[in-house]
Design goal:
heterodimer; A: mainly beta; seven-stranded mixed β-sheet; four-stranded antiparallel β-sheet; B: mainly beta; globular
Chain lengths: 127, 107
């Protein structure tokens, strides 16, 4: 079955860059049928979609991250990554990676629902 | 951005009872592009429903989804002990993708 596992530093200092990697097993990030996404959840709060990357390296980000986010994919390792720059305490959250269904719409190919999700990794921003 | 408002915030029920969860969108959700997820404490969300009413693989038929436009409902026909969790709706008809704030179903 498809499994995703997020990994990376659990503590990042303010103003620095948060870097996470998601390792996929049971599927390939080279699949033409899916996007690969990052979603976060501050403690006790709801879920926020950060963005997605496609096997080609094509990306689409939530505008609320105002140019701070970069996603990439490494097909040789079946991994995809997240970088979030200039972090503050408000970026403290559990970060999830997930596979996103690809929808074909009048606007082109777009992110649908998320399934499955990785187990999540807590990132704390603190000095 | 489409804002999803879930109600109630908390639903206190007993095993065997019926649960009805609401998700209201600030704008019409295109083509019933709405999903529901279940999240248990300390775990990642799990997909239950997509396309407003299609059950994901392996999801018991006591879970059902309905609705269109701006009003959507998740119904759990008879609560099992393992169903006590937080439930989120998510729309994928408009960018950016957004989630509701969640409904907690508790005993």
């Amino acid at each position: 079955q498809v499994q995703l596992r997020a990994s990376g530093p659990g503590l990042v200092k303010p103003s620095q860059t948060l870097s996470l990697t998601c390792t996929v097993s049971g599927a390939s990030v080279s699949s033409a049928s899916y996007f690969w996404s990052w979603i976060r959840q501050p403690a006790g709060k709801g879920l926020e979609w950060i963005g997605r990357v496609y096997t080609s390296g094509n990306t689409n980000y939530n505008p609320s991250f105002k140019g701070r986010v970069t996603m990439s994919v490494d097909t040789s390792k079946d991994q995809f990554s997240l970088k979030l720059t200039s972090v503050t305490a408000t970026d403290t959250a559990v970060y999830y990676c997930a596979r996103a269904t690809m929808l074909t719409t009048v606007r082109g190919y777009e992110v649908g629902w998320f399934d499955p999700w990785g187990q999540g990794t807590l990132v704390t921003v603190s000095s | 951005e489409i804002v999803l408002t879930q109600s109630p915030g908390t639903l206190a029920l007993s095993p065997g009872e019926r649960a009805t969860l609401s998700c209201r969108a600030s704008q019409t959700v295109t083509s019933r592009y709405l999903a529901w997820y279940q999240q248990k404490s300390g775990q990642a969300p799990r997909l239950l429903i997509y396309g407003a009413s299609s059950r994901a693989a392996g999801i018991p038929d006591r879970f059902s989804g309905s609705g269109s436009g701006t009003d959507f409902t998740l119904t759990i026909s008879r609560l099992e002990p393992e169903d006590f969790a937080v439930y989120y709706c998510q729309q994928y008809g408009s960018s950016p993708r957004t989630f509701g704030q969640g409904t907690k179903v508790e005993i």
